[in-house]
Design brief:
This protein is α+β, with helices and mostly antiparallel strands. The chain has helices at 3-9, 57-74, 80-83, 123-139, 158-171, 181-189, 191-202, 243-254, 272-286, 292-296, 298-318, 331-348, 350-361; strands at residues 15-22, 29-37, 40-49, 97-98, 104-109, 114-115, 209-211, 220-223, 229-232, 239-241. A hairpin with a 6-residue loop joins strand 1 and strand 2. Bound molecules: 2-acetamido-2-deoxy-1-O-phosphono-alpha-D-glucopyranose and magnesium ion. 2-acetamido-2-deoxy-1-O-phosphono-alpha-D-glucopyranose is lined by residues 25-27, 53, 214, 216, 234, 236-237, 260, 309.
């Protein structure tokens, strides 16, 4: 179905005056559409969900309903319209629509006056981002995690991610293995370290919480004028998880000196000023509700998420690029190398990272 059909399904009022394709996600197709209805100007986000990645999108929408309603109920009334995503219902009352081709659509209100950032140069913004993700955890700390669907089973099960990569290396379906031997070597060398968190979880040393699991900085809405944080978005992967996953993935993305797919890896590395700023914001929010062990594993979370993503990008590259969207043919390989460069730098700075975390735990 085309977008015009989707407008009708979700009952968008008025006339469409503009469509922008938003390109910063790697999975779903996302459009911002502007509508004029008399004097009213409203924008909406329309998404078509990638069903190769998300096998049961209706489970996502069930999780999303529960989580957004839970958060909305806790916000003061004046913050409700901008503080949480508001999905639209179709005529049948469902918050999604499956068209005749099997494409899966959803729509939510664009938060007026909001912006997202793909890079963070100002440490104050990163501190605010840390506080926003920390607060997201707090808001959901009393949410019964057992009522949430596990959207992608084993999403951050780093051990399973490694097993899958090793199977792909063995099968070499796209004939690319011989060109990435140093990358495979690095990942093998750091496998033990990257699997530690999952081992601790399995041993019952760390509690499962409701986590976001995809805490890239561009999943936070900021007020375009004041830079106040408004809402955490992209709730597709909200599931039970570890605090260290959310902290770690946010550091991986936000405290990197470069983009996550920088081809010149000499530009890539962990920026300690950004690291400290995010940590100050995040730890400040969660320190009273976290166990000592959880706080001790935060820096390990950053290394784990970075190595894990290198494993995932490389696996997809070797598998013939089926999962992540590409901007050019070798994109997954470039992403892999960039994540490896970042992980290597983090491993060197592990002690420094721990020192900084400790400073804010106290
Ligand atoms: C994907 O599409 P996006 O940007 O929300 C991926 C994340 C990765 C990220 C890397 C469901 O997220 O796990 O960290 O790309 N999401 C899924 O940029 O696999
Ligand atoms: Mg996402």
């Amino acid at each position: 179905m085309d977008l015009t059909g989707i407008y009708k399904i979700f009952g968008l009022p008025g006339k469409c005056s503009g469509v922008t394709v938003l390109k910063n996600g790697n999975i779903n197709k996302t459009f911002k559409v502007d509508f004029v209805d008399g004097d009213r100007h409203d924008s909406y986000i329309i998404q078509s969900i990638n069903t190769y990645v998300f096998k049961k999108p209706e489970y996502i929408m069930s999780n999303v309903r529960g989580v957004t309603e839970h958060i909305a109920a806790k916000l003061p009334e004046d913050k409700r319209s901008r503080g949480v995503l508001r999905f639209l219902d179709a005529a049948d009352g469902k918050n999604y629509y499956v068209d005749g081709d099997g494409s899966f659509w959803r729509a939510y209100r664009f938060v007026p006056g909001s912006v997202t950032y793909d890079t963070f140069d100002d440490p104050a913004l990163l501190e605010a981002a840390g506080a926003a993700f920390g607060n997201f955890q707090l808001l959901l700390s009393d949410y019964d995690a057992s009522t949430l669907y596990e959207i992608i089973p084993g999403f951050h099960d780093t051990k399973k991610r490694y097993e899958k990569l090793m199977e792909t290396v063995e099968a070499d379906p796209a004939g690319r293995v011989s060109s990435v031997l140093p990358e495979i070597e690095f990942l093998k060398k750091n496998r033990k370290c990257a699997e530690m968190l999952v081992n601790m979880l399995e041993a019952g040393e760390l509690p499962l919480r409701v986590t976001h699991n995809d805490t890239k900085g561009n999943n936070i809405l900021f007020d375009e004028k004041t830079n106040e944080t408004l809402a955490v978005i992209d709730l597709d992967t909200v599931m039970p998880g570890l605090v260290a996953y959310d902290y770690g993935d946010a550091i991986r993305f936000g405290a990197n000196k470069s983009d996550e797919d920088e081809p010149d890896t000499s530009k890539t590395g962990l920026d300690m000023v950004k690291f400290e700023a995010f940590t100050r914001g995040f730890v400040g929010m969660i320190r009273n509700t976290s166990t000592e062990k959880e706080l001790e594993t935060l820096s390990l979370g950053a290394i784990t998420m970075t190595v894990e993503l290198a494993v995932r990008f490389l696996d997809d590259y070797l598998d013939g690029d089926k999962y992540f969207k590409l901007n050019y043919p070798e994109h997954n390989l470039v992403r892999t190398r960039c994540q490896i460069a970042l992980a290597a730098d983090m491993i060197n700075k592990k002690d420094q990272m721990d020192e900084i975390v400790k400073k804010y735990v106290r």
